[in-house]
């Protein structure tokens, strides 16, 4: 499977509000609930595991653990859908 972004798996507490903050950040291309955690697609030139953990913790999440992951089929699907939506939004 191919996703042009870094895929990160996030676990922790109080992730919901913190995820909303992260969604608005430059270089964060996708935030999706995945079980009790989150799957993130981020620009690898801008974000790594430590950056994501720090941003989520600063936004109120607790006990945050972030690890790199191979993209799942769902990650690939969401990347394709997001790219299609971005093309439709352009004038």
Question: How do you describe this structure in short?
Answer:
About 40% of the residues lie in helices and about 30% in strands. With about 90 residues, the protein is of the alpha+beta class.
Explained architecture:
This protein is an alpha+beta fold and 91 residues long. It contains 3 helices and 4 strands. Strands 2-3-1-4 form a 4-stranded antiparallel beta sheet, sandwiched between helices. The longest helix has 17 residues, at 73-89. 26% of the residues are buried.
Strand order within the widest beta sheet: 2-3-1-4
Judged by helices, strands and strand pairing, the structural class is alpha+beta
Count of beta strands: 4
- The 3D shape can be described as globular
Q: Radius of gyration over alpha carbons?
A: 13 Å
Binned strand content:
25-35%
Residue share in helices? 25-40%
Let me know the average pLDDT.
84
Low-confidence sequence ranges? none
Roughly how many Å apart are the termini? 31 Å
Count of separate DSSP helical elements: 3
Order of helices and strands: EHEEHEH
- Major sheet: 4 strands, antiparallel
Question: What's the topology here?
Answer:
Blueprint lengths: L5 E8 L1 H9 L4 E7 L2 E6 L6 H10 L3 E8 L3 H17 L2
Helix pairs in contact: 1-2
List keywords for this structure.
globular; alpha+beta; about 90 residues; four-stranded antiparallel sheet
């Amino acid at each position: 499977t191919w996703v042009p972004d870094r895929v990160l798996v996030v676990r922790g507490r109080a992730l919901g509000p913190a995820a909303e903050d992260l969604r608005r950040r430059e270089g964060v291309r996708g935030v999706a609930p995945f079980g009790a955690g989150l799957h993130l697609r981020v620009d690898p030139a801008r974000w790594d595991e430590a950056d994501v953990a720090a941003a989520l913790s600063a936004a109120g999440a607790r006990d945050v653990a972030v690890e790199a992951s191979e993209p799942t089929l769902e990650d690939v699907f969401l990347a394709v859908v997001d790219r299609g939506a971005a093309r439709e939004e352009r004038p």
